[in-house]
Design goal:
Shape: elongated
Radius of gyration: 18 Å
Number of domains: 2
Structural class: alpha+beta
Distance between the termini: 19 Å
Strand order of the largest sheet: 6-7-8-9-10
Number of strands: 10
Strand content: 25-35%
Length: about 160
Amino acid sequence: MTQFQLGSVSHGTLRPQDLMPAFLSALADLRQPIPGNIEATKYMEYVGDMFTTAAIDEDDEFWDSEEVQFDMDDLIEALNNNLPPFVYFGTLEGDGSDFGFWPDMDRLEEFIQEEGKITSDPLEVILPQSGFRVLSSEQGANVTLMNMERDVIWALS
């Protein structure tokens, strides 16, 4: 099992002409299909292993259109499909310009409260109904989600 990589996909910009290729490239990395209704793909080129906006001027009015906003919403929805448990795609809490894959710690904490069982290791909790193990540091800054066989699904450090 390959560990899912948490982290930023795009940081420091809210311009669709910057976000759109980053989101499309992230979908390609996840080997997820690009929704067929994405207008912006008409203006994108897939070069190497990432999308670029080389086919359209960055100042084109298309980037301010309503279609781009629909595209962005559809891409965010597509990026949130088929993610590992307790992970979401969106902005980092506290930084609205940092888009990426982040652990949903509130949801994980809910599951721990509802079904968590502490093991002989006080830093490990088993979620028997969900089929996961959660290992965390005493301060909770380092968190690892594993399946019951202890394969790492994702880790936050």
